[in-house]
Structure formats: structure tokens, C-alpha cells
Amino acid sequence: MPSNNDTDLVLLEELRNGRDAALNELIDRWQRPFLSFAFRYVQNREDARDLVEELFVRIYKNRKRFKEGTNFSAWAFTSLSNLCKNYERWKRRHPAFGKENLREEWNDSDLKIHPLVDLSSSSQPDRQVLGKERVELVKDAIAKLPHDLRTTLILYQYEGLSYKEVGEIVSCSVKGVETRLYRARKALKAMLSSKIGPSSDIWGEETG
């Protein structure tokens, strides 16, 4: 995950001043984390690529509007999150669309890039113990979370952002991020406990 906002600000300034190649450098820096987030949200590679492409088109179209000191990553992740939300809303209104374009699995290479970490603590479970079936159950449960909880969980749990960074994207305080994560984990546990058991190692805890 790129961390130097000064580099982004320089590239945005160059883009504003007509050096279109600066957009390519922003793409090189941010395409991977943006694709990861979009894929986790919509769970389809082709759709994720389309949404990230639309995001970069918006960045170019709005290049003159970026103000000095803009937090590029916060602006971009916020925009991408809204694109994902609106796309899913559109799909719900057109259920016949994409029936043949089934949701893809998070395969082993995805897990190596962004490990499926434990959802109740900072520890990481043994992927072999977790197994593909449990990955699918967790994935399905995450897809059922409300937009604000899903976005917060993906940004923190999978993209590795700090509470402060997540808060800047979802427009809430650090305490608010903590509350959303608690609510997301509680909702996931409620959805999954009957399927994998309350003492499952996916939660990194034992209930006796």
C-alpha cells in the first residue's frame, strides 16, 4: 500500500498542469490496492477492474478540482467505495444481469497477497485449518454486511489501513471505526456461528 501522500500530491499537481503521464504513475502506485478493495467488495475480477478503471477516469476528469493538500488515497478509496455500492445497487435492480458471470473464489494467490486474517483479533489463523469452505462462508457473510460496515472491515482487515486512515475514508472518528469493526465482527459471528461453530479457530478464541 503506497504511503507517501507527498508523492501523490506531486503527481496530482503535474496532472493538473497537463502532464498526462502522471496519471500512469498514479495507476502504477494505486492500481493493486484499488483492485484488491473492489474485488473484495464485488467479488468478481472483471467487475472490479471496470470499477477501478472508472475511478481513474474520474480522477482524470477531476484533475483540475484537486486542491493543494488533498489526501489522495482517502478521496480515491471513498470514491471507489461509492462506485462499488452503486454498482451493487444497480445489480439488485437488474437481477437477470450477469447470471452467467458468477462470483469468483478468493484463491490461494489472493490469500497470499491479502491473507484472510482472524476477524476477532489481530492474529492470523492457519489457512490450511481454515480451508476453502470456511473462506467461502466468511466471504458470503461479508457480502451481506451493510455498506458502511463492509467498507470499514475490508479497509482495515484486508487492506491493512490504520483506524485513522480508515476514518478519513469513511468520514468518522477513530472511535467510530472501532465501533463499526465491532459491529461488523459481531454480525459476522452471528451469521457464521451456526455454520462453523462458536469455538471455531476462525475467531481466534475458544468458548469452552
UniProtKB/TrEMBL annotation:
InterPro entries xref list: RNA_pol_sigma-70-like (IPR039425), RNA_pol_sigma-70_dom (IPR014284), RNA_pol_sigma70_r2 (IPR007627), RNA_pol_sigma70_r4_t2 (IPR013249), RNA_pol_sigma_r2 (IPR013325), RNA_pol_sigma_r3/r4-like (IPR013324), WH-like_DNA-bd_sf (IPR036388)
Keywords, sorted A to Z: DNA-binding, Sigma factor, Transcription, Transcription regulation
Domain RNA polymerase sigma factor 70 region 4 type: residue ranges: 138-188
Keyword Transcription regulation among record annotations: yes
RNA polymerase sigma-70 region domain mapped to chain residues: 26-93
Stated family: Belongs to the sigma-70 factor family. ECF subfamily.
NCBIfam families found in the cross-reference section: sigma70-ECF (TIGR02937)
Protein's name according to its UniProt entry: Sigma-70 family RNA polymerase sigma factor
The organism of origin for this protein: Pelagicoccus albus
